[in-house]
């Protein structure tokens, strides 16, 4: 298992990743639709976002990674926002967000993916990362807790409709 930055060599793997969402979790497939429609443009937009270029209103620089297995299948996607200097990010979304492809859920990949990205977050200057999950998303909350997440509180956000559990994770503990 390794984290890779989005690049064109994973075009076919990304199509399978997207199709898995479209078939098994269509509600969340929309987040990856840009890659299905125009993979080259999608990858460029992710790279631009990591460099703080052409950011949409309310966005901050954000590194994107894909968790790939030995067969070069994309198992999941994880994002590290360089800062949470907006009301939405500081309350609801946090520093790190991730998705595991539906066919690979409940196999420990979320835990692995988060563990692998914490040193990268630290390299970006994030000592403590805010990570959130829907209050009733026990799988995601377990991933966070198994990576040292310290529960903060449950909040009702302004953008997301469901109550949100907030956690803080020490990024230095994974690289120092």
From TrEMBL:
Q: PROSITE patterns from the xrefs? A: GNAT
Coiled-coil regions listed in the entry: none
User: Which CDD domains has this protein been placed in?
Assistant: NAT_SF (cd04301)
Q: For the N-acetyltransferase domain, which residue ranges apply?
A: 1-170
Please give the start and end residues of each transmembrane region. none
Sorted alphabetically, the keyword list is:
Transferase
Keyword Repressor assigned to the entry: answer is no
Q: From the Swiss-Prot or TrEMBL record, give the protein name.
A: GNAT family N-acetyltransferase
Q: Which species is listed as the source?
A: Photobacterium lutimaris
């Amino acid at each position: 298992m390794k984290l890779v930055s989005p690049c064109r060599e994973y075009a076919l793997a990304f199509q399978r990743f997207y199709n898995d969402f479209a078939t098994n979790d269509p509600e969340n497939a929309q987040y990856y639709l840009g890659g299905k429609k125009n993979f080259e443009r999608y990858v460029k937009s992710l790279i631009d976002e990591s460099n703080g270029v052409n950011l949409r209103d309310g966005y901050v620089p954000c590194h994107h990674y894909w968790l790939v297995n030995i067969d070069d299948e994309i198992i999941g996607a994880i994002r590290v926002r360089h800062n949470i200097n907006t009301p939405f990010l500081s309350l609801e979304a946090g520093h790190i967000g991730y998705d595991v492809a539906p066919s690979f859920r409940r196999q420990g990949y979320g835990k692995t993916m988060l563990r692998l990205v914490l040193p990268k977050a630290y390299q970006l200057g994030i000592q403590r990362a805010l990570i959130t999950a829907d209050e009733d998303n026990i799988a995601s909350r377990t991933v966070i807790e198994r990576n040292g997440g310290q529960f903060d509180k449950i909040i009702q956000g302004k953008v997301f409709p469901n109550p949100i559990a907030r956690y803080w994770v020490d990024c230095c503990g994974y690289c120092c």
